[in-house]
Specification:
Elements (H helix, E strand, L loop, with lengths): L2 H7 L4 E11 L2 E5 L6 E6 L12 E6 L4 E8 L7 E4 L3 E4 L2 E4 L117
Length: 214
């Protein structure tokens, strides 16, 4: 059956066009040509562009329920909103996705480029086999951090550490190669060990008010 035959086949079911006059909740009231009464219709699931007042729309008329199928024309003053079952909405160059779960899968790569990016969640997990982070500045604010790894390699120009208390426990060996070491301790310095060896190629100086040996 041709579309023209379908439109003219019955007065109870047909396709027509009209202008939206006003909107009440999810009901659209449409002025049809050569009709005085307004037609009450709902937006069809296939109508992705959100209808607004003064839009010219294609309507499926039915004696039980009429539906807006498409937005045919719109005034230039109104911006378009693309809405897919209230899950994906594109409005004024802004994209909103509302879903229970979102899965992104790409064979090659997924790239995100923006001036500002924000991620907020209660529980987060990242699994990256080989990762690289580069930038100018990074800041972490956490109540507690647990860091587990087999090997850590750090190369930097300057390290500043400020803490109220620091605890370091090494099971076997700590080996340091330092060009110059200086420690400024305000109150006390104590070493408890089974054996201590101090080797100096040049002079060894100890300056104190009292020295106790034995």
């Amino acid at each position: 059956m041709l579309e023209s035959e379908f439109i003219g086949s019955t007065q109870l079911t047909r396709l027509s066009y009209g202008i939206i006059k006003f909107i009440s909740n999810e009901d659209y009231h449409i002025k049809l040509p050569r009709k005085t009464n307004l037609l009450n219709a709902k937006k069809a699931l296939s109508c992705l562009v959100e209808p607004v007042i003064d839009d010219e729309v294609l309507v499926y008329e039915d004696s039980n329920q009429s539906y807006i199928l498409f937005v045919l024309a719109r005034s230039t003053t109104n911006k378009s909103t693309l809405n897919i079952a209230n899950l994906i909405c594109i409005e004024n160059e802004e994209v909103r996705v509302n879903a229970k779960s979102i899965h992104l899968s790409a064979v090659d790569a997924i790239e995100l480029q923006t001036d500002k990016q924000s991620v907020s969640c209660n529980v987060g997990q990242f699994r990256i086999n080989q990762g690289q982070f580069s930038g100018y500045e990074m800041q972490f604010n956490y109540e507690s951090i647990k860091f587990l790894c087999r090997i850590v390699r750090t190369a930097c120009e300057t390290i500043h550490t400020k803490a109220v208390q620091t605890y370091l426990r090494i099971a076997e060996l700590e080996h340091q190669v330092i060009g110059c070491l200086r420690s400024i301790i305000k109150r006390s310095y104590r070493i408890d060990c089974q054996q201590i060896d101090i080797y100096s190629k040049n002079d060894a100086k100890i300056v104190a008010k009292q020295i106790h040996l034995g």
